[in-house]
Amino acid sequence: MLKLMSSHLSLDCHNKLLLESIKLNLTSIVQYYVDSDLLQKMLAKSTRFIEDMFKSCCEHGRNDHLDILLPLMSSDVLKYSKNHYAKAAENGHLVIVQRLHQLIESSDDKQSFDYSSPVPKVLANGHMDVANFIFNVLASDPERHTHRCNVDHIHHSIISVELIEQLLGHPTIYVSYEKMLADAVVAGHKEAIDMLLVNLPENKENYSYTDTVFASAAKVGDIETIKRIVASRPNTNLKLQHIVSLIGQSRLPNSLVTEDVIIELVNNSLYLEGKILKAECLGNLLIEAASNSLALIKMVIEKLSNYGIKLESEIHKISTEHFNYAVAACVNRGDNESLEYLVQIIKQILLDNKRGKSNGLFYECGRYRCQV
C-alpha cells in the first residue's frame, strides 16, 4: 500500500509516516524507507529529517532502528547523541543510553558533557536500571563528573532506604528531604519514612517539614506520620487545606482517619490556635464536614470560627451557596441531627443579622426553607 501511495505523498508527509513507524516499532516500514530512494530525497531536502529520526529512536527506545539509520548519518551523530541522551534516559531506555554513552565517549569532545542532567527525571519516572548506569558512569571519574543536580522526587516503585542513602552520600547530588519524605509517605514505605524522620544525617541541620509532607500525609491518610511530625516538631502544624484532605480521607472505606482523629489534630494544632478563618474557607470546610458527621460540623463552627464570640462572626458571612451545599450534604446522608443543627445556626444568623421579623423571614437552601 505504501509503495502505491508513495509517489503521491510529499516529503514532509513521508517524514511524518517514518517517525510514526519508529514510534509504533514498524521495522519493515523503516527498512523500506532506507532501501528506497525516498530517505535520500528527504535528507537532500533537509538534514532536519535525520535528527528527527534519531530523536524518535532515542525517545521510544528503538535500538534496532538506530542500527538501520546510523550508517546514513554523518559526523553530526555526536551532536545528536548529546542532544537526545537525556530524553532516552528519562524514558528508561537503557540500551539506547549505553549506546549514546559509547558514542559520546569515543569523541574528543567528551570532557564537558553532563551525564547527570537527566537523573532527577530518571528517578521520578522510576527507571532504576538507567539510574544505576548513570551513577556508575559518574563514579568512574569523579574529578571529571562534577556537574550538580537536584533530586526532588523518587518514584514509589523504586524508593528504598538504600537508594536514599546512596543519594545522600553522593557528592554532586542535592536531595530535597521534604519532597523525598513526601514521596515515601505516598508510597507507604515505612522504612524510608523512619529513616528520614529518625535517622537524619548530622550534617542536615536545616532539615524542616513544611506543607508538602503534611499535604501528602493528609492525602493518603497517614495519621501516624502526621502525629510523629507534630510530636517531634511542635512548631510545625496542620493547616486548613490539610484538614480538608483528612476529612475527605475519612469518607473512604476502611480509612484510619476518623472524626476523633481529625478533632484531636485540630485541637493540637498551634497554627489554628486563636486563628480566625475567613468565611470562604469556613464555607468550603463546612461543606466537607457536612458530608461526614455532626461532630465535624461542630468542629468547624465552634472550634475554627469566632461564632458565639463575636456578633458578626465569619460564620455569619458564609454565603447562601455554601450553606445550600452543606444542608444538601446532610439531607443526602439522611442525617437529621446534623440538619437540625445547621437549621438552628442559620436561624440564629438571620436573627443576628436583623433581616426581618421572626414570623416572616425565610432562608432558602435549594428546596429547603428555614422560617424564623
Provide the helix percentage.
55-70%
**What fraction strand?**
under 5%
Enumerate the strands of the largest sheet in spatial order, edge to edge or round the barrel.
1-2
Structural class: mainly alpha
User: Can you give the mean pLDDT?
Assistant: 83
> What is the CA-based Rg, rounded?
30 Å
Termini separation comes to 79 Å
Largest sheet: 2 strands, parallel
Q: What is the helix/strand order?
A: HHHHHHHHHHEHEHHHHHHHHHHEE
Unreliably modeled segments: 201-207, 355-363
Number of H/I helices: 21
Oligomer: single chain
**Which shape, going by the Cα principal axes?**
elongated
Question: Describe it for me?
Answer:
By secondary structure, the chain is mainly α. Among the domains are: 1-113, no CATH class; 237-372. Helices cover 59% and strands 4% of the residues. The chain has 21 helices and 4 strands. The chain has helices at residues 2-6, 11-23, 27-35, 38-45, 48-60, 63-69, 77-90, 94-105, 119-125, 128-140, 161-168, 177-187, 190-197, 211-220, 223-232, 240-250, 259-267, 279-290, 294-303, 320-333, 336-352, and strands at residues 149-151, 173-175, 362-365, 368-371. A two-stranded parallel sheet has the order 1-2. A hairpin with a 2-residue loop joins strand 3 (362-365) and strand 4. Helix 2 crosses helix 4, helix 18 runs antiparallel to helix 19 (294-303) and helix 18 (279-290) runs parallel beside helix 20 (320-333). The chain is elongated. The chain starts with a helix and ends with a strand. Residues 201-207 and 355-363 have low confidence and may be disordered.
